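Extended Data, panel c. Modelled sequence:
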Amino acid sequence: MLKISWFAFKLYIKPDKITGILLFILEIIDRAKGMVSFVIVAKIIDVVVDILQKGQSVDLVLPYLIVLVGWNAFSGLISLNRWYLRNKMSQKFYWLADILIFEHYKTLGVPVLEDPEKNNAINRGKSEIFRVGDLFYQFIYFVAGVVNVVISGIAVFYFLPKVVWVLFIWIFLKNIPDLWYTKKMYQYGYNSTEDRRKYKMIIYYVLNKVKLIELSIHNATSYIKNKYLGFVEKYVLGWIKIRKEMYKVSLFLAIFDALFQFWAYFMVVSKIIIDKLSVGRLYFYISMVNRFTSYLEDIYQSLVGLYETSLRVDDIFIFFGLRPSFQDGHIKVKKFVSPPQITFDEVSFKYPNSNKFVLKNLNLNIKPGEKIAIVGVNGSGKTTLIKLLLKFYLTSKGNIMINKDNIEDIEAESYYKNVGALFQDFGTFGALNAEDNIFIGDTTSLKNKAKIKDAAVQADAHDFIKEYKNKYKQILDEFFEGGIRPSFGQWQKIAIARLFYRNPWLVIFDEPTASIDAEAEYKIFNNIYKFFENKTVIIISHRFSTVRNADRIILIDEGRILEQGNHEELIKLKGKYAKAFRLQAEGYKIEK
């Protein structure tokens, strides 16, 4: 618990360490300042009683009043500065928390991000990040509580040691059920993580315009709503049951709590009367007992809060503790000046937690500047080959060589500066305008608007972009003022333009034109072959109109290269490629 609290403390002040440490100090002073006031007020009471009893001048109390006013002014200044620093830290952490997540998230790598168990931890961690601030303040309250208990405890112990020990033990015992029920509540929520994620996704379906339209047409909205409500009823009933148990126990303990407080006050008053102490002393010790009890409560409540929040922040702790499944390479490759030589040497691969090899002893040599098309049925290993080439995973056996370097030894960031890739599940950045959506293909140099336009023309995107109200400055999300929603096909062309703008030496297309009509696809790929004439191009596609113009077509079947050659050679071979091509060609004829 304290380990996680310390982790949260360091994480929370990371955006501004000086402000964070100063806030920590001021928070502790602010919570301890009340005891100084009690000492001053107790002295003022005694002075006033003396003045009344002895008929002395009222001027005798003035120095103490000045000290009290001065202390109150100082306390007000502490509170004002604490309030300012608290708001400053809150704003900084609120806006920079996502950056802290992003910086770590991007280091994890695809194997970690695709692991279901680790994905649950990542999702919990991301959703609980703002609890770090709660834990930061609870940690402060705990430390301040300890300081206050020590100070007030010493004062009461000097006067009535028995009261200190009895109250200390009682309040400790009283708070044990809170800790137990807190753990029970957390465990209940933790065990339902998967269901809560699933049903939040289910209710999202009727909150999403596109999905709502389809569900409404199919009269399925009530089914979705009732499915969600069924889970909510079950989940909330379980939650209420635990809270009811907690409430009954707390109510029972509250009765004994009142009895112990009465006993403590009675002991103080009796001691004052027996020892014939002053009224100021009575006020001071009653206040100290009050404070001691209150601070003990604060400590135990802080412990409960620390325990509860640390259980949730533990997910963030786990998230930031995640590490990539393999270490990055040490070779920083320079910017390519020509397309690379790529060699797959006896490459085999199986995914983590799987015994099935997706690729089996695969050998492939891709010459610099060669246009390669990879075809095969779903699950044959096409996309896995690309994942290995992009260093998302390392090979289980064998080597992949980029020029003379093993890809395992190459630093990923330096390698990616030479690579461009477009997947079927490409990124759409709707909060950015059309121009920026293309520009993010290469942000290493200043924005070149002429080059952006040329890339859009090559990708067949310029014609529809120029029809937008704001042209290339058009925001591409209808949920922002003045924004619009491009069709999926338009998004694909913008994504392809992004790759044209990047213009790397190694270009990879994984089913990039799945939602573009055949005529537009033919035009785009003619432009691809022409635009990247002196570059290495690797294309994965199911459409033979896309692959037939490649220099070489690789047919992968069950993780092995079954056939390879150009289109004419493979047709003459009369193997699987020729058969699949004929079936697809006949399909087009039927459609016509």
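The longest strand covers residues 342-349. This feature is highlighted in the accompanying rendering.
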